[in-house]
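Below is a concrete protein record.
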Amino acid sequence: MERNGFDALLEQFLAHIDVERGLSRATVKAYESDIRRYVDWLRAREISMPRAIGKHDVEAYIAFLDAAGESARSRARRLASIHEFHKFALMQHAVDDDVAAAVKAPKTSSTLPDVLSIDEVGRLLDAAAMRGSEDPVVLRDHGLLEFMYATGSRVSEAVGADLSDIDLDERVVRLTGKGSKQRLVPVGRYAQEALTAYLNAGRPELERKAKGTPERRAIFLNKRGRRLSRQSVWEIIRLAGERAHIDRPLHPHTLRHSFATHLIQGGADVRTVQELLGHASVTTTQIYTHVSPENLIETYLTAHPRAR
């Protein structure tokens, strides 16, 4: 009976964030993983009911994660999940107080995310194009990477985009982000041209390879004519990075980080970038306003009267 106290509450919580709040499947799974690990730890300490949890237990769990070697960022994310779980428990009257509310997240590093220079992005995209190859996979890869850099899309947004979401004449795309929230983002000329080439000559060839009913909706298809997967995008950007001789690991978010950083450096205000990225809070976007060490030194040498 005691075991069901946590199990029933967790089941209700997951249904709440899935159905009522409309969070993405990946986000719901992340919450579930965080809370199951938390509950298992509580049970190991012989805490079997939500009402038995104290503030000191939440603090002890975060300390346990620290001792286990988890980064401050990971601990902060897990604590955020715990906060949501405890708020829900209070809302359901499963507890009398929200004992987690006063537990603060550990300070995380504010270092700038890994970004490419404008020159490196150019090399990466040129490498993906492979000097005008007409191979449908090359046309797709070039169109995909140009699209991701032009829009700052998350990898899930890029592979989830449908043909009905994009208007290349108006150069705009509708992206569906976290919590199924949609936003309109411009598509630059380079991306427009690469996508036009792919949609005219590459995608039809890939669609013909589909077994059974062809994929009619997705913009980006795999070699079997089905919707491209997120894992495939990792491989595409990795290979393009190797061909461009970029000697550090690349991942799909590298283009998103580069998109935001280059906009800020180009004079875009942070709230505009927030809207383009689909961030719920401007605080998340503000990390891109940090001046890189290279730009700081260059500005100092240029502006300080006695720097040289």
About this structure: The domain at 118-296 is CATH 1.10.443.10 (hpI Integrase; Chain A).
